[in-house]
């Protein structure tokens, strides 16, 4: 027998039901670097409107021309202003300075941070722990008027940029404070054939996700591979 309370409960939300994001403009700060170019290319190839940003507008425009697929290039500020969603793919050593300079342009935007704070020495790659805890938490502290999420950390730029590869066989760990925002990021990831966005917690858990890239670099070097991740049983 079903009680009145049970009957009035809202049905559980399907964790794999995502919003339509096809009409959103995606900006990629650091779009002239390998990771930024790769993400821009894959999203544009999937039908997303993409703008790549750089400190120098002419560099961004040259990168956009090389990428094709309707990608546009602009200076970082214009890229941020014209975009609905902004992916941060800048080098770690320029992360804070870039975001501080774009605080006004990123006001009210959904920001996806994919930066991995890493150092390198004779032993290989190792994780750096920022004062705020992670690159994503640093972004959230620097952009109080933005909705900051974290995703796209574990992707091979080589695979992303290869036009002969039709599917990117990997999961994307998505972190954030608001389910509507993480759903949107998961939906963007799902636009890329073979890719799946998986919710992986709040921003306080971003450090270990960012740090795992150091392990993947070691995997790639040992096995001459372009390793990614798959989450099983979900």
From TrEMBL:
Organism: Streptomyces meridianus
SUPFAM superfamilies according to UniProt: NAD(P)-binding Rossmann-fold domains
Domain Pyrroline-5-carboxylate reductase catalytic N-terminal: 26-117
This protein's record includes keyword Phosphoprotein: no
Stored PANTHER family: DUDULIN-RELATED (PTHR14239), F420-DEPENDENT NADP REDUCTASE (PTHR14239:SF0)
Record-linked Pfam families: F420_oxidored
The name this protein goes by in its record: NADPH-dependent F420 reductase
Keywords from the named record: Oxidoreductase
